[in-house]
Each structure stands twice: as C-alpha cells, then as structure tokens.
Amino acid sequence: MMKKLKLFLIIVLSFLAISTNSQNYFNETISENLLRYSSENYPEKIYVHTDKTYYSNEDTVWYSVYLVNGVTHEKTNKSKVLYTELLNEKDSLIDRKQLYINGLNTAGDFKLSKKLTSGNYKLRAYTNYMRNQGANYFFQKEITIWSSKQLINDTELVKNDSIYDNNSSFKPDLNFYPQGGYLVNNLINKVAIKLKDDLYNSINVTGVIVDDNNHEITKFTSAEFGLGEFSIIPEKGKNYFAEVTTNNNTYRYKLPDALENGFVLNAINNQKQIVLELNSNTINGLLGTSLVIHERGKLIFNQNFKEAKNNSILRIPIQKLNSGILHLTLFNSNGQAVCERLVFVENDFKKPTITIKKPKEYFGNRKKVTLKLNVENNLKETLPSILSMTVKDINASPNIKYSENIKTWLLLNSDLRGKIKNPNYFFENENVRKRQYLLDLLMLTHGWRRFTWQEIISNSVTEKKYSEEKGLFISGKTLDMNAPYSIKSVPTRLTFVGESVHQEPIKKSNNKGEYSYGPFIFHDSIPVLLEARLTNFKSEKDTDRKILIVPNTSKSIAEVFLDDSVIKNKKTKTDIDTYLKLQRYLEEINDKFKQYENVLDEVIISSKLKSKEITRDDEMSSRASYGDAFNRYDVSDKNSIGSGRAIDLFLGLPGIRIINDSIYLSRSANVSPLILYDETPIEIGDLSVISSNEISFIDVLTGGDAMMFSSNGAVISIYSKQGNGFKSNRNIKRKPGIIDYKAVGLYTAKEFYAPDHINGIEEQTKADIRTTLHWVPSIIINNEKSVEISFFTSDADSKYLIEIQGITSTGIPLYQTTEITVD
Length: 823
Fold this sequence. Notes:
Largest sheet: 5 strands, mixed
CATH class of the domain at 174-345: Mainly Beta
Helix content: 10-25%
Number of helices: 10
Strand order of the largest sheet: 2-8-7-4-5
Structural class: mainly beta
Shape: globular
CATH architecture of the domain at 174-345: Sandwich
Distance between the termini: 100 Å
Strand content: 35-45%
CATH superfamily of the domain at 174-345: Immunoglobulins
C-alpha cells in the first residue's frame, strides 16, 4: 500500500513539474514574441489632418500626414516614404501623391478638378510596409465634394429620405457581448448590448431578460449609440431571451448559450486603478492559467496562476500606464485564450494640453489675428511637439464637434474592429461619468484588431512581403533582345541628369534579371539614363549592347477594399441647404465687391528697351542650369553646314577638334568630353542623326564649370531650339542597351496662399471669400517659448473654428479647438 502511495505521489509531482515547465515556456514565449513585436515588428500608423471635410470642386484639399510607430506613437524608424490617394465613390483613383517624411509629419495637397461631381470621396494614406497587414489597416477618411450646379439640379441628392421609410415594424439589430467572451453557468456575467441600427442609436430602447418560462430576470435600457448592459447568473438547463418593445411591437432575441464550466474576467476602471476580478467554476479553478496584459503590443503583465483557487483580484495603477487601449487575456493551461477584455485608459497624469491665446473673440473684416500656441503638461512645462492648424468657416464644416481627430484615431479607432460613429464624443462630452460608462461599453462591443494570439505565439507576424521604404528606387529588368526575351544577368549603370550629373557605381542585375538602385531622395521628376552591357562597359562592340531594359516606371497601387470603419454619411437636405446658403452668401460678397472696385489713376511705367543681343543672352542663360558660360556659341541663325548634321556645327569652333567623328577639346589635354543634349547625356554617334537646324546654342565647359557634370573636367552642352530634351527628339534612334526617361520623384507640397490685407496690392482688388482662413501643416513647439501664428480675416461674416491637432515627441496625441467671430 505504501509503495502504491509513493508511486502515485511521484506521478502527481511529475505531472505538476511537466505542467509547470510547460506553463513557464508558454509565458516566456509570450514575453519574447511580444517584445519582438513591439521593438522590431511593430506596425505603423498614419493619420491625416485636412483643413476641412467639405469642399467645392476647384478647391484645394490641404493636409498634414502624421506617421508614427504603432506601439509607442513616437517617430517610426521604418518608413520614410508614404502615399496619399484620393478615391471617388466607386473607389477609382482620382489623384495620388508620393511624400517624403523624416519626422513626425509632412505636408501635401490635392487640387480638385472642376469636373468632379458631388459626392463622398475617400482620402487614404499608407506606407509600403503597412501593406503587410492589408488595406483595411490604412488610414481612410471621408471628405465631401460639392458641385453647386449639380446640387441645384439633382433632386435625388436633395431628397431627405430615410432607409427606414418610417416603417414602424423595422426589427432592431440587437447584439450581445458577454464580458470576457462567454456566459458561464453559476457565475455572475456582465453582458453589453448594442443596437446596430442608426434608427435606434438616437432613442432609448427598454427591454427585459426572461428565461424560457417567461420569468423576468432583469431589465436593461440602451443609451447613446445603442449601447447598454445588464448582469445575469445563468443556471444549468435554462435558456434566456431578451424582449424589446418599440412602436407597439415586441421582438424576442435568444442570448448565447452558457458554458457549463469556464472563466469570467471582470474589469472595473475607477480612473485611479483598474480592478480585475477573475472567477472560475472549473475543478482546478485558476490553477495553470495565465493572465497577459499588453498596451498596443507592449507587455504590461504576464503571470501564471499556481494555486487551485476560484477567485483572484488584481489592481493596476493607471498612473503607470499610457492613455489608450489595454488588452487583457486569460489563457488556460493549454495555452488557449478563454477570456478577453478591452479596457480604455485615460491617464490624466500624462495629459498635455494645447494652449491657444488669442487677443480677443471678435474681429472685423480683413483684420490681422495673432495667436500664441504652446503645449504644456500639468506642471505648465512646455512639451516638444509637432502641430498642424486650420482656421475654417464653421458653416463649411458642419457636424465637427464629435468627429474623428488624431486623438480618437490613434487611441481608439485604429486599434478596434468595426466602425465607431462620432468617436470624439468619448473624449469631449461634458458629462464625464456618462462618457466613461459608454466608453467602457464600447470596449466590450468591439474587438482588438491589430494581431491575433495565434500570430504572436507562432511568431508569424515576422513574415513581411512588403519592405519599409527609406527612399525611392530606380529598378527594372534586363532581358534578351530577341524572343522569348529570356532573363539576362548583366552589368548595369545608372546616371542621373539634372542640374548636375551623377553616376552610380556599376551593378549587375541578379539571377532574375532584376536591377535596383537606391534608396534616393529627390523631389518632382528627374531625367535618368540606364545602360546595360552583355560583358562590360569598356567593350566597343555593338553586339555587347543587345540587351532589352524594362524599367519599373510606375508604383503599384495598393488594393482597394470595402472599409466598414469609414462612416459613409448620406448627406441630408439640411446639409445641402447649408452649403448652398453659404455659397450664395459668398457670391453676394463677390458681386458687391465688384460694384465698388477701386479704379486706379493712370500710371505710366517706363523702362529702357533691352537690345536683341542682351535679350538673347538672357534667354540662353535661363536655359542653362549653370547660368552664363564663357565659351558659348549661338548657332540658332546659322544655315545647315555640309550634310546638315549637328556634329558639323563644331567645325571651325575654337578649341574643338573633330577626328573620325570624335570630338576633343584641345584646352583640356585632348580629353574626350561628356556630351549633353538639353543636359541629358548622349553619345557622339547621336550627333549624326540630329539636324543642325534643331540646335539653338552650344556651351563648352571646362575646369570647375564642367565638374558639376563630369569628373574629367570637359563638357560640351548642346541646347535644342525646342528645349524639350533628348527624349522628345523623334529623329534620334537610341542604340540598344540604353534607355532614358524621367523618374517620378517625391511630391513637394504647395504653400497655402495667405493674403496680406495690410501690405498686399492684389488683395485690394478682389473680394476675399475664403472658407479656410489659414492653414499651417507643421508647427514646431520646443522648450523655449510659445509660437506665434498670424493670419487675416476675410470679407465673410461668420464664426470660424481654430482646430489644432498634433502629437508630442513622446507619442501623446493632441487635439484642441477654439472659435473666433468675424463681424
């Protein structure tokens, strides 16, 4: 008997040891993989602040793009190139910009075409690296574009209809969300409810919970956004139903079936600490379970329970946490997630504010307004931050009080599944207790969407198809010139031709025939020359050039998907009437101003007429990126020489020798110069197929003047009469093994036009009817002092919203508004 007891104890202890080791390994795996996720594989987040959300066609959409580390909300160390796109209601691309970002934000703009029709358009932004998670993780925002003529004539848009058509028998879409995920018998369960229909979001709906014997268990009432909750202790063998009565109709809904044995995770946020209560009705209770808590992927708590108890209470001080979503998960002894709960943290200890000091509340027309801006913490200390600011007519941006902003996006929407209507309600509503109550219900009715535990445990989030971009790449393929155009791995050479010529070291295309140069940082577009040879670039054999070069001249556009998180607001007759009223008012101001235009006295302006020679010199200098040249030859008025080839123009030019169709500069030690055609490199043979009649002038550059183009100190720069460059000359036939084109660079944002009604002259001759008074895409706040921003009011009497968004250098999003009145 004693031996059997010892054997039994050995088996039990061995089992416990194996179980403990298994749990320790699980917890270590979670810790290691979450650390890898938050430090190496973290996602990126983008937010776009626009100057307004309602536009007329022919307006400009001004915007500032914020790109951050998705875990810390600080500057990302991954991408430096991002993309912004404007899509219509059919998800067709209207415009696209490629932007460079080296800090927390960068500026951009979309000039709207007058051909755009009225409707809801989508502005989205992403990095190439963000494509790994899919297009549903891109930032997307709805903007409205109005066409006045279309709105007046389009009766469909003006009709104030409802999807419910006043149908009193419309059944509410009622959903149940047990706290932790499941109902469990004989344990108290908190259940959140959500009515997903817009019709029931604005009215309170009352219901009762009954069992299958119609005995009333409890009651519930929905609040804003159709949210509500109730508590219940399910009993074995019973079913439960919710009954809702509205418009004299009663609807019945079955609650989810309860588990016989399981776990319940209850969380209470009292704004000072989060109190967590874990309950279980299993045989071993919480023994072997693990509680994991993370903050956007940063591990906060990871503990294994080693006692067979059915209840445990933990307290987490809020002061040590960042504002945002806290994700709590209880795993059973097999490593399966059995309870999950989201809790929203508002840490007032880490709550900076934007201070906006304005001289007064009321201003006249065309008056200067100077604001003083700063970002301060609770101790009134300045916090380094980056901000963007818009001053817009409130009538041109209705329904903005509770709309999305950088704070709601980074802390709420970007990490939750599903759509959230009026998200700023949960941050700005004056009734603090009510909004905190509703915010907690929001956590219960929406799930975490950034990753799954399966991905973290298996570490599959490390697989990346799309790389982060530090700059632009010049890439393509090298193929055999003859069918079937097989892949060729050959030497390639890239030359940039702009204000100066730069040549990259020779690279060999890989075994897939792919070549790639970069990353580069250049704006707008720049001419590039790409060459390839079968063996090497020293070879003079024509057969060595027989390579087909296929460049990647366009960036692939990310897939477009139907995004439920973008609220597609149908415009009502009230919205349209408000817009039309504003437009009529602005037109009246413009018409009135034209009637009282100031007529200037006659002003006589005299100047000395430039000679033809000076005018011609100025024209040639303006064509050359380097300005004047000491050795310049104007050949624009010369007749064709000899055979009429461009090379024949060099006959008789001092310091130039032509030997067997080769050009040499005697003043540069008989070196063979680099030949440029409209500042694009060409070969000597190309001058035999260019007509001499097409040449405007020739510059001979030596020494320091030539070094900006060529290291050998000798350049002959030829300029055509058309001035369109080498590529546009149809008489030139490129030899094989060489291509040239313009590489699309990074977009440079235009500067917002800010009129000066004190010193400006043009502003005094026309009406000022701007709906966006001012736009500043980047305002840097440092530790020194407040920043002053000045602008002028317009001719329109109205209320104007000053909206400032941004983020601190430590990753805390900022949002603040105030108003001024122009009368």
